[in-house]
Structures are given as structure tokens and as C-alpha cells.
Design a protein that fits this description.
Elements lengths: L6 E7 L3 H10 L8 E2 L4 E3 L2 E2 L5 E7 L2 H9 L3 H12 L7 E6 L2 H10 L8 E8 L5 E12 L7 E7 L17 E10 L7 H8 L5 E3 L2 E5 L4 E5 L1 H8 L10 E9 L2 H7 L8 E3 L2 E5 L7 E6 L3
Parallel strand pairs: 1-5, 6-9, 10-13, 14-17
Antiparallel strand pairs: 1-6, 2-3, 3-5, 4-5, 7-8, 8-9, 10-14, 11-12, 12-13, 15-16, 16-17
Length: 294
């Protein structure tokens, strides 16, 4: 049985939601309708059958977002700082499921990884039937000073009803979920303490290429440049210590992904039975696909 925290979603900063939708739809994903946050950002999510999701995130009202960041919104402060220094799209935030974000913040702080004030907010969600539902969340942030471009946060839902996202989890590329979070680090061991503490996991494989660990519903890999080249055929350096550079997704139809990727202008690489699709020309991020393990 796996230990560790369950992955809730991955934050993917993008320049605009229209371009992100075009790319992801071209790769065979069903993209949800756009939703806005009350602090100037918005998303168009890709939901998976395993309960996790990818959150392409754009600034819909930059002035409002910068104001809220200056007032202490830890989520926006990190997002805007990243956008000022790095090309997009990118992967920056890892959200873990939480039953008590207030307790999680105490845990993060005690471990030395306090990432800022609690954030509580609500936003509308438009379901497949067109019905709009108000959703509320509480977030608690964890951060490692040596890794300013990557953060983890606990995400607590403050509503007690289940959302029917079944129509949104059916994708033409037949992807069912996120199997691995792939990080780049020149010195992976430097970040083991941070990731193990906030994700409540224990590293299982440790070697010269990096380390990996199981969390509740996925795995994390923290790889050196040589490790990334060996496992994913890509080369990305982590100038700022630790970067989330790729996601390994499970699909029931790998050949469909292989057929769709070239139509988007992306050239997939096959390595170790996986297809690796670069989606960030300058940022170097990628989506990798493998056949779902039954």
C-alpha cells in the first residue's frame, strides 16, 4: 500500500488560456470551461479519472493579481514572480489533498518550510450540464528557500458535495491520470528532506541519477540532467535548485497520442516504451505518456 499524500493537481502557468486550450485539445485532452478566481487569475483545467488534474493558469486581470500579491496572497506572489523571470508554459505548484489545511500549515512551519499565509477563496465551477456551482477552498503553502521556483501546497475543499466531472475526464487520447511528477535538480539529495516532509513519503530508489518515491496516488522523481536524459530523453537544468519539468501520464491508447502530437507541431520522442512530447519550446517542460498498467 502506498504511503504519502495524495496528489490533487499540478499548476501550469501559461501566457493565455486560449493558446493552452489549443495545445492541450490538439494533444487529445478534454479541457474544461474557463473559470476565474476572485484575485485576478483563471484556469481551464484538464481533469483525470484518477481524481487528479492539470491546471493551466493565466492572469486574467494582472492589475488585480499584482495588488492581491502585494497584499500577501502567497499563491499569486510566487506565480507572478515566476512569470517575470521565466518563459511559459511551465509547471510550478504541486497541490496535495488536505482534510485540514490549518493543521498542514502548522506542520509545514514546524518542519521549517512555511510558505506564507493561509489562502481561502471561492470561485464558480461550470459543470458539464452548464450549471454553475460555487466552490470554496483553503490552501496552506510549503516552500524551500533553495527552490524558489517550485512550491507545494495543501488544498482543502470547503464544500461537502461531490462534483460530477465524468464527462470532463473522458479524453480522446484516453489518458486516465498522472503517474509521475518529474523534477530536475543538479543536486537531488539536497531536496529530499523538503519533499519527504511535505509529501510524507520516503525515498525508495536513490542512485547517481537522483531519487524517487511513492506518494498516495502517484510517484515523484527528482533527477539530475543525466537522469532526465536517460529516462526521458530531455535535458533541462535546474538553475534555481529544483524545478518541476515534466509529468508522466497513463493512457490506454499510446498510439493515439503518437498520432496526435505531430499534428500540433510537437515531435514526440520514444524512450523506454514512453512517448515524450515537448510542450515548452523555451521552458523545456514536457508531457510523457505510457501505457496504463492494469
Amino acid at each position: 500500500m502506498r504511503g504519502g499524500r495524495d496528489l490533487d493537481h499540478v499548476v501550469m502557468p501559461v501566457a493565455d488560456l486560449g493558446s493552452a486550450r489549443e495545445l492541450l485539445t490538439g494533444l487529445g485532452f478534454t479541457v474544461a470551461p474557463e473559470a476565474s478566481h476572485p484575485f485576478g487569475s483563471g484556469n481551464a483545467c484538464v481533469f483525470f479519472a484518477d481524481g487528479s488534474y492539470l491546471e493551466p493558469l493565466a492572469l486574467l486581470d494582472r492589475d488585480l493579481a499584482e495588488t492581491r500579491a502585494a497584499e500577501g496572497n502567497a499563491f499569486l506572489r510566487r506565480d507572478i514572480a515566476y512569470r517575470l523571470r521565466h518563459p511559459l508554459p511551465a509547471f510550478t505548484g504541486v497541490a496535495i489533498r488536505s482534510a485540514d489545511a490549518l493543521a498542514d500549515r502548522d506542520t509545514f512551519s514546524f518542519a521549517g518550510f512555511d510558505g506564507g499565509e493561509i489562502l481561502e477563496f471561492g470561485r464558480p465551477f461550470t459543470g458539464p450540464d452548464g450549471r454553475v456551482i460555487d466552490l470554496s477552498f483553503r490552501l496552506a503553502f510549503a516552500a524551500e528557500r533553495a527552490a524558489p521556483e517550485t512550491f507545494v501546497f495543501a488544498c482543502q475543499r470547503l464544500f461537502d458535495f461531490a462534483l460530477d466531472r465524468s464527462a470532463l475526464t473522458r479524453h480522446p487520447n484516453r489518458v486516465t491520470g498522472i503517474a509521475h511528477l518529474v523534477f530536475a535538480a543538479d543536486e537531488p539529495d539536497r531536496f529530499r528532506g523538503f519533499l519527504e516532509a511535505v509529501l510524507r513519503c520516503e525515498s525508495e530508489v536513490i542512485n547517481s541519477l537522483g531519487f524517487s518515491a511513492a506518494i498516495g496516488n502517484a510517484r515523484i522523481e527528482v533527477l539530475t540532467p543525466d537522469g532526465l536524459a536517460a529516462r526521458y530523453g530531455t535535458s533541462v537544468r535546474a538553475e534555481s535548485g529544483l524545478r518541476l519539468v515534466g509529468l508522466l501520464l497513463e493512457t490506454e491508447a499510446l498510439e493515439t497520442v503518437g498520432a496526435l502530437a505531430p499534428e500540433t507541431g510537437r515531435r514526440p520522442t520514444e524512450i523506454l516504451g514512453r512517448l515524450v512530447v515537448p510542450i515548452g519550446d523555451e521552458s523545456g517542460i514536457f508531457l510523457a505518456f505510457e501505457t496504463r498498467r492494469r
